[in-house]
Write a structure and sequence with these properties.
Strand content: 5-15%
Shape: flat
Number of domains: 3
Order of helices and strands: HHHHEHEEHEHEHHHHEEHHEHEHHH
Oligomer: single chain
Radius of gyration: 26 Å
Length: 452
């Protein structure tokens, strides 16, 4: 989650707390006294947390999307309606934490208006000089164009001031955006008051102006290559431009014994919670599967795990019996005729994944990690996709960064795109990233996105 999105979320949190106190003022026609403020502290935090979570579920904090004012208003309204439902249930269970129905309604209406105004004017805030960061791209080739397009399509606090064209490099960008030649890099960066230089050269040997770049670095300008900048903006890796030395010298990719210990403890805790929540549902799902179609309740399939060791993955059966008898191993397609009626519901709700809790307990899988693929696909992908085998350096997961950021993969191109996210997760593994994946997984399950 990048800094502008964190700033947007923090603003919503503060506005939510303010909205609740404004609701109190309107309800009681007076400023709240110290006793009321003291009693309302925990209530305000609960209120703010729920409404911000509802905004998150309504995708108001997406960094890869921008919305017009109408879309912001509709999403804010839906988020606050969702918050009303959530808070109503919470207050029903814990009535002593509620300030009053009229205060709740007033606070939600006030917050909805404040949130709409805040989100509409937030892009303008990012243009303020002390918030905005000016970016200069060294290079004019296809990758430089890709970085430029990326800056146009995502929400961030960067402003592209232009390009520097090296001698001999063919231009893929509009030449009107070129601010000078490579010899004028330092002068141009100083004149434009640049904060960051992104190096995106098609060929660096004999071209990279090391002395000028060092001069810019010592002046406080951030120097970054296009691979790292792409990773920062998108949350995935630019695999086609990466060489082994980049992995070796870049930050991250350091899985310590503590991290493995944390992952295993986290997995066992979630497996215990999952068994308590889902075990009562499993007999009902099993009965529905048996009534709907012939065949076993559980589906067993060999998948590739950590260290490319095979293991048996368990799922509820969602396809007809012997679905691949004629076709062999193939990816599931959209509106796949092999999927049963109950199976379609199980896939959309992700309930077919429940039996993988037992894979987690056995240690074959983790709750969070790259999705395990079948050996038939792994053999082909290892040959065709660079660095594909690196995803097997950690345990596969029930959910993962690629699963929440990208749609269902059903082709070689999809496998490459998901690998970008999987390697990003392995390189940047952290407790915060795991928490973010859990939150994104909740959105995927609630709205049924990406299932086939």
């Amino acid at each position: 989650m990048n800094k502008p999105i964190l700033l947007l979320l923090l603003g919503d949190y503060l506005l939510a707390i303010s909205a609740q106190y404004l609701g109190i003022c309107l309800r009681y026609q007076s400023m709240p006294n110290w006793e009321m403020l003291n009693q309302g502290g925990i209530r305000s935090l609960i209120f703010a947390t729920v409404v911000v979570l509802a905004g998150y579920l309504s995708e108001l904090y997406r960094g890869d999307l921008t919305f017009n004012n109408k879309e912001i208003f509709l999403r804010a309204c839906s988020a606050n309606f969702l918050a009303f439902l959530g808070l109503s249930v919470f207050y029903y269970l814990f009535p002593n934490l509620m300030l009053g129905r009229s205060v709740l309604v007033m606070a939600l209406v006030i917050f909805c208006l404040l949130q709409f105004l805040w989100h509409c004017h937030f892009p303008g805030l990012l243009r303020i000089p002390w918030v905005m960061q000016k970016v200069l791209i060294l290079g004019v080739g296809p990758t430089a164009l890709q970085i430029s397009n990326l800056l146009d399509k995502t929400r961030h606090n960067y402003e592209l001031v232009g390009f520097i064209q090296p001698a001999g490099e063919m231009a893929s960008i509009n030449l009107s955006s070129v601010l000078g030649s490579i010899e004028s890099l330092a002068r141009t960066a100083t004149r434009e008051k640049v904060h960051k230089i992104v190096i995106s050269l098609s060929e660096r040997r004999g071209v990279l102006p090391v002395r000028d770049i060092l001069g810019c670095k010592f002046k406080g300008i951030d120097i970054v290559d296009e691979i790292s900048f792409y990773e920062q903006i998108t949350g995935k890796l630019m695999i086609e431009r990466i060489n082994p030395s980049w992995f070796i010298f870049s930050n991250g990719s350091r899985l310590t014994p503590f991290m493995f210990f944390y992952k295993r403890g986290f997995d066992l805790l979630f497996a215990a919670v999952g068994l308590v929540l889902f075990l009562p549902l499993m007999p009902l799902i099993a009965l529905a599967i048996r009534v709907d179609s012939k065949g076993p309740v559980f589906f067993r399939q060999v998948r590739v795990g950590k260290g490319e060791r095979p293991f048996v993955l368990y799922k509820f059966r969602t396809m007809g019996e012997d679905a691949e008898k004629k076709t062999g191993a193939v990816w599931a397609q959209e509106d796949d005729p092999r999927i049963t009626r109950v199976g379609r519901f199980l896939r959309t709700s992700r309930m077919d994944e429940m039996p993988q809790i037992f894979n987690v307990i056995r240690g074959d899988m983790s709750f969070i990690g790259p999705r395990p693929e079948r050996p038939e696909f792994v053999e082909t992908l290892n040959e065709r996709v660079p660095y594909y085998s690196n995803r097997h350096s950690v345990k596969p997961g029930v959910t993962g960064w690629a699963q929440v950021k990208y749609e269902y993969g059903a082709s070689m191109e999809d496998a490459l795109e998901k690998l970008r996210y999987d390697l990003y997760y392995i390189k940047n593994f952290s407790i915060f990233l795991d928490f973010l994946i859990i939150m994104e997984t909740l959105k995927v399950v609630i709205f049924g996105r990406g299932a086939r």
